[in-house]
Amino acid sequence: MKQESAAPTTQLIDVDGKVSRVPPPLGSKPLLIFLVIGETARAADFELLGHVRPTNPKLSGVGDLYLFNEMSSCGTSTAISLPCIFSGLGREKFEVANATNRTNLLDTLTKGGIAVEWRDNNSGCKGICARVPAVAMQAEVTPLLCQEDYCHDEILLSGLSKSITDNPVDQLKVLHQIGSHGPAYWRRYPASFEYFKPTCRTTNLGACSLDEIHNAYDNTVRYTDHVLSKMIEMLQDLSDRYDTVFIYVSDHGESIGENGLYLHGAPYYFAPDMQTRIPMLLWMSEGYRQRKNIQSSCVQSLRNLPFSHDNIYHTVLGMADIKNAFYNSTLDILKVCRPL
């Protein structure tokens, strides 16, 4: 594993103000949160969210998995959406230039006593992880999961359990996937996950039929389903020692031929729904739900409400009982499900 080099932190603007945390109940287990950032996953191709194909065979069997049907992205590219999620600024106010030198969600969590680590199987953290431990996954970690210049997302699990249990404190792990990044969809999953056939096996999408492109894309979603289910399984196994939470949200969606459009990056106000409507999944251990007195029926009732990347910053802070000058309880998705 390769440690990411930190970005310059000169003239860092601290927007946190006073950071406070409600002490956990006496005798509580440490808190462990997986915040999984997907790549190029669109809600339309998740079986759990209405897709007619079996793209979520494993997650479909996970109990107490909460789904959000109306989740939208901050942008239509990783360069916008990723820093926007962690900035707390919200889509209307966010600009890359005004987020670079501000403290972000990871800084706030660190100040609140959470041990943060960023694990990356993508193109880096865009400066978000400049002040926290960060690991770029490399082929030498698990060679069987890597080919040429890329690795499959299961590599994010390599050594993860040990890194958690070696440090039995409150923790947040950000797991940044390569997910469904195109146009080389067929390279995003092992051969054993080529379930939908035939597939497009070239970056020249014009040389493939729409069915071949869609088959390859749906195979990436089916592999993501496998990886996410393994992450939840790890959290289930650790729930006797930690109160565990799993959050998955994609950075943006993708066009795969609808109306002649491909890939992503369209101007937001003209972008099709396929590029902005994204999946979000939430799982919490029984221990965490009891600790916060969260009723499953309440969380289920939120399923069809409109949420966006704007909510992630505040929801994660709320999960950790941390507040700063930027925290907005009206944007904390689970606030309504926690007793006052």
TrEMBL record:
Enzyme Commission number(s) from the entry: 2.7.-.-
Molecular function in Gene Ontology: transferase activity
Locations listed in the record: Cell membrane
UniProt keyword DNA damage present: no
Record flagged with keyword Cell membrane: yes
CDD domains (UniProt xref): LptA
Gene3D superfamilies in alphabetical order: Alkaline Phosphatase, subunit A (3.40.720.10)
UniProt name for this protein: Phosphoethanolamine transferase
Pfam families: Sulfatase (PF00884)
Keyword annotations of the record: Cell membrane, Membrane, Transferase, Transmembrane, Transmembrane helix
Membrane topology: Multi-pass membrane protein
InterPro entries recorded: Alkaline_phosphatase_core_sf, PEA_transf_C, PEA_transferase, Sulfatase_N
Sulfatase N-terminal domain span: 33-322
